[in-house]
Amino acid sequence: MDALSQLFYLHGIGFEFTKYTGEQVFFSEETRKRALQCCGVDTNNEAGIAQLTYDLDASLWLDLVPSVSLVEQSTCLLKLRIDERQQYLAANIDVPSLGMHIAFDNLYNLAVTGEYYLHGVRYIELALPIDNMPIGYHDANVQVGEQHAITQIWCVPEQVYQVEDTKRTGLSIQLYTLKNRANLGIGDFDDLLALTKLCSSQNMDYILLNPLHLLFADMPERASPYSPNSRALLNPLYISIVLSEDAINNENLDAIMQQDDVAALIKSNDQFIDYENVSRIKYTLFEALYNQFELTASDERRQAFTDFCNAHSTTLNTLESDNLTFAYYLQWQAHMQLALCQKSCAERGMAIGLINDLAVGCAGDGAEFKNQQSLFSQGASVGAPPDPWAEAGQNWGLPALNPQSLINNHYQFYRSLIRANMQNVGGLRIDHVMAIRRLWWCFESNGEQDGCYVYYPFEHLLAILKIESHINQSIVIGEDLGIVPPEVREALASSGIFSNSLFYFEKQHSGEFLSVDELATHCLLMIANHDVPPFTGWWQHDDLDIKQQYKLITCNEYEQLKQQRIEEQQRLLRFINHHGNTTELLLHSEAVTVYSALALCLAGSQSRLFAIQIDDLDEQKYPVNIPGTDKEYPNWRRVLTHTSEEIFTKNASLLAAIDSIRKG
């Protein structure tokens, strides 16, 4: 293998992949070289390539231990690398934080788990049995003879945190779409708090949220939660005015609420959120809350705010604002209100509570990128290769993390990101979970759009998910829709991570829907999510009408898609009529009738998590998002037609029937 080919492998630059059609696709050398260049590698510098190859491979065998040592909790074996002639030397391992000291008189008779020949010397990797230690990260000192090294031992559990293994039902929502009880134009944490009471009354165990990430206060129309400013911070627009202690006896706030523009917003009943107007008004109200805090807060509350700022200093320091204390205050309020909602879930007996959603990337001009720019590639963004839903592939426009840079500082960036998103919730859904193994990079090569897969330190990123889930007592769901390598599916399953299935896509080779008994068990099963039409819109072909209305498809494409949809509907009816206990349904059956029958069928599956989408209960026709569009359709803006209370009242008998089936 020549040096460049070896560097491709060591740097995680993919060689080939299997397309959704089954075709094996090989990447050209030019494509792979361009991917390396995006990582800052000069592919024309032979000496530099040779040195980098040495640094990523041979030189690692000269270190006693890597900077991070993965130790499986079940076996407790620490890997050590030495010149085989050093086996007679004594070894000592100290873990100061645990008061642990382990000594070996010599290194003979230990299992050899690897070897490497360098300059005629055989280096061996040995497995040292060490004492049991708690799950987490532990700094350790390792000494063999006169050679000394420092490593961080990660004690990794076999699986992520688990809840009792039984079938559970929950609600899937986009928080901003909830009919706001305060009539301020956008769903907030008070609406979520009310929803926890409604869900628990129907014996639901969780509420699956959209990403709550920080967006752009100065550009409020950038509304996509999947292209955020920062994934480690919360969006202040979700703060409820009435839940804030600083709203009490706040004369300035009361005066603002009487202003004409606020009164007009309260009286409005728009189908789509006007983010410009909503953001301007809510930030004016936030300033009134903050000024009240500054003037009247007790010493106890001021200390609580200071403690929050100290605990979250790393992420708070990434914020950009003319008034940083105000920005910190908003993060504090958002965290407290989210925690209040999770507390309500727990007090009402919901086994999981809130499930957060982690976007696959961040915007290229946001705080996360700007403050961690050295971790990202140069000129590459992430996306997806061609698949049945996007024949031309996808470029999501999010900057790609350099896999080698992630290793820096014991993977601190990814650890902090996961921990931030597991705070004050009971679960975390990871969008496009395949990214911890490989990501499709999009870049320009010779003036044309090009792309390939780039591989990431899978074992370490998976270990972080396992460790952090236990520290935060959070279940993990991996969104694995699309092209998923077999090793990812196997690793997720063995790690106790829930997969994520959309019923629309659960098909046999013949095109018919899988039977209920064939649906995955350790899985979050959904009929629809934010990237596909809500059921009523799907059944009535409203999504196709919308695409034609916005000139996203031609008349011919509309007719073709309509015919395909009718065939899909017939398949769905065959599924329901086979599994259901209702009178036979037909193509002219009402959408609500078909949806109810489908939901009852799927409730009988063995899937451990079954999520009902509130959009479907509200009989929505308009999607919240049409993938592949940005300015054409008002994505991430459509609100629900009815209040949460009205939706639950109307669907009470359906929800009770689903609960009965799930618990039967």
Automatic annotation (TrEMBL):
Organism: Pseudoalteromonas distincta
Transmembrane segments: none
GO molecular function, one term: 4-alpha-glucanotransferase activity
Protein name as annotated: 4-alpha-glucanotransferase
Similarity comment: family membership: Belongs to the disproportionating enzyme family.
InterPro entries assigned: GH, Glyco_hydro_77
Entry keyword set: Carbohydrate metabolism, Glycosyltransferase, Transferase
Gene3D superfamilies, per database record: Glycosidases
Highest taxon of source: Bacteria
Enzyme class (EC, first level): transferase
UniProt EC number: 2.4.1.25
Keyword Glycosyltransferase annotated: yes
NCBIfam families for the chain: malQ
One of the Pfam families matching this protein, by short name: Glyco_hydro_77
Reaction catalysed by this enzyme: Transfers a segment of a (1->4)-alpha-D-glucan to a new position in an acceptor, which may be glucose or a (1->4)-alpha-D-glucan
Gene, per the UniProt record: malQ
